[in-house]
Amino acid sequence: MVCSRAMASKTPVGFIGLGNMGNPMAKNLVKHGYPVIAYDVFPEACKEFQDLGAQVTESPADVAEKADRIITMLPSSPNVIEVYTGANGILKKVKKGSLLIDSSTIDPAVSKELAKAVEKMGAVFMDAPVSGGVGAARAANLTFMVGGVEQEFDAAKELLTCMGSNIVYCGEVGTGQAAKICNNMLLAISMIGTAETMNLGIRLGLDPKLLAKILNMSSGRCWSSDTYNPVPGVMEGVPSANNYQGGFGTTLMAKDLGLAQISATSTKTPIPLGSQAHQIYRMMCAKGYALKDFSAVFQFLREEETL
Fold this sequence. Notes:
Blueprint: H1 2-7, E1 13-16, H2 22-31, E2 36-39, H3 43-51, E3 55-56, H4 60-66, E4 69-72, H5 77-85, H6 90-93, E5 99-102, H7 108-120, E6 124-127, E7 130-131, H8 133-138, E8 142-147, H9 153-160, E9 164-171, H10 175-203, H11 208-215, H12 223-226, H13 250-266, H14 272-289, H15 297-304
Parallel strand pairs: 1-2, 1-4, 2-3, 4-5, 5-6, 8-9
Antiparallel strand pairs: 7-8
Helix pairs in contact: 10-13, 10-14, 10-15, 13-14
Keywords: Branched-chain amino acid catabolism, Mitochondrion, NAD, Oxidoreductase, Transit peptide
Pathway: Amino-acid degradation; L-valine degradation
Family: Belongs to the HIBADH-related family. 3-hydroxyisobutyrate dehydrogenase subfamily.
């Protein structure tokens, strides 16, 4: 099965979910010469792909009828469940031997359930969430964390390499999601810590650029301090330099922390800082930061201190 797929490498690829991430990802498949069969719940999202020569369909089921390799990139677990198992879902018309790759970030337990349903239809499901955001999606520089049957990894990698630079096999279905959720929990915790530290240092009279420089040559250094500093004016080319526009939205971080919380509860794992980070990002969403980059937690802390 794997061999026959590799032989017909430029057979059509289905792509469902052409949003902020899915749009540039699907474009990179087109650039690599794959005929793309596209679907999005919002027809206007498909128009651009029609102009690029992609075939636009009426439903996920239609995509499954026309392509035996499908990538889904959707906002959350309910969307993924609907696209796979809904009245016009992929499973209504999926062909035996199809390879279904879900790059959405969802609950690992949902990935496992879907894998079982897909397997019953004689097809293969892999979870392959991404890290890197919209910029990396455009540049085909994403990291894919892949969970599923190892024998199928090469078949998945062939497609994922068109969209990313790091394709990492994590283990059985659900482990890709697990890796993504764990990374983002640590990212949130370290971003809040960086924001608190910078705010305190500034209050104590330190110049923010100097403080960042010291942190970045000391043991407190982390990605949030040296690559994505949350304080306006410390670094160029990051959301904090542009009123926290673009980047990775606070709503999405709150969602991923919610997934971490669900996973922690189901595995009886204590995550005191992860839970606290979840609540902070939930509060930010409620106070007008929903669409700002998650590094806006620095601005949020500055405003909270006046209460």
